[in-house]
Design brief:
The protein has 214 residues and is α/β, with parallel strands linked by helices. The chain contains four helices and eight strands.
């Protein structure tokens, strides 16, 4: 019913480490097709990433956004587990089961990284005490210098396509390019999923693929 590209490898480090800063730019790679029977009311949401958890997190955030708009969305990961084959037949069965009128597929297009060594900020303590001489002090300065750290910048590109079930063809697509700055000390951060989901759903609404219920 739909044509789905093979699953592309995804370096999980990008979505596990926290983002110190993220800049996302979205561009349309396929304008809304004339054959599109939009707006769509029930979407099957599919994230094709190597990690099942990454797929689930992104799908859940998209579903949450759709729900706020009054659009019915179903995450593919809610209907499968880590052992379920990620194949066209699996997703076609999901479409038939839930009666979806559109399928949204997000997958990795490219991932590049660049690492640089940076000097860490030193810490200094100063102790002083008076001497026997008037207005003369003894001063002790101690400087603590940490080992050099590593700053990593990732360039991440995700492609999101929307397929019409009735037309059996892609009717719309966008590409989200993100630059993510990380360091070795950053803890886990979930915001990358939130940012990507916000970009996807805002463009779905802006381009008339879904309609917000009043």
């Amino acid at each position: 019913m739909i044509s789905i590209r093979p699953v592309l490898l995804f370096i999980i480090t990008v979505l596990v480490l926290g983002a110190c800063s993220t800049v996302t730019q979205v561009s349309r790679t396929r304008e809304l097709a004339e054959s599109a029977d939009a707006p769509y009311g029930k979407l099957l949401v599919i994230a094709l990433l190597e990690s099942f958890d990454s797929r689930r997190y992104l799908e859940q955030e998209v579903i949450a956004n759709l729900s706020e708009l009054g659009v019915d969305g179903i995450a593919s990961t809610s209907m499968m587990d880590t052992k379920t084959p990620v194949t066209r037949q699996t997703f076609v069965a999901m479409i038939d089961e839930i009666g979806a009128d559109a399928v949204m597929v997000t997958q990795l297009v490219s991932l590049q990284s660049q690492a640089t060594v940076k000097d860490m900020r030193p810490e200094t303590t100063v102790n002083y005490w008076p001497t026997y001489y008037y207005n003369v002090f003894s001063v002790e300065v101690t400087e603590y210098v940490e080992p050099q750290g590593v700053a990593i910048e990732y360039s991440l590109v995700l492609m999101t396509e929307l397929f019409s079930v009735r037309q059996r063809e892609p009717v719309w697509a966008i590409q989200a390019s993100s630059k993510i700055a990380l360091d070795a000390e950053t803890t886990r951060d979930y915001t990358i999923y939130v940012d990507e989901a916000d970009a996807i759903t805002s463009y779905l609404l802006r381009d008339g693929l879904i309609a917000e219920l009043s």
